[in-house]
Amino acid sequence: MTPMLARSPRVIVIVGPSGVGKGTVVRALLDRYPEIWLSVSATTRPPRPGEVDGEHYYFVAPGEFDELVAAGDMLEWAQVYGLHKYGTIRHAVLEHLAGGHPVLLELDLDGARQVRQTMPEALTVFLAPPSLPELRRRLESRGTEGPEERDRRLATAERELAAQDEFDAVVVNDDVDQAVIQLASLLGLPER
Length: 192
What we know:
The chain is an alpha/beta fold.
């Protein structure tokens, strides 16, 4: 028997504003703890070149997606820009939990709120920047958005930051290693 967890595996939902470093922290967490399963979203959009079903997304027909929603098999879902639907399939999460793997969902604020309703035992964590000026600096330094898009993301970040109290825990990402240690501790994983 592999000693993975001191208690049953759990679902952890991570939310944070654009530029906070969610992707960096999640990659570092998964590198250190390969037993964690990063949830794969379902989508009704067609695969892009190089995307693999079940690895990048679960590609499903619109009717199949609607059936999953109607059956209560979506932990959270949304229709993006009025086009395609995206969501987290409940049975995929439960299968990984049953297999002894903690499950990580990287979601937006609305998705986390839906998971809170559909799976209240999930642990919700808000990944926060050290400060709003630091978040602005990070967004500017990555150079992937123009000024208007950056301002829109900062306005969204302010709304997200105002919702921190809705979460079970807040982890400040001022050091990636420390953020990973805190997340692992919340999952009941040993420090590595």
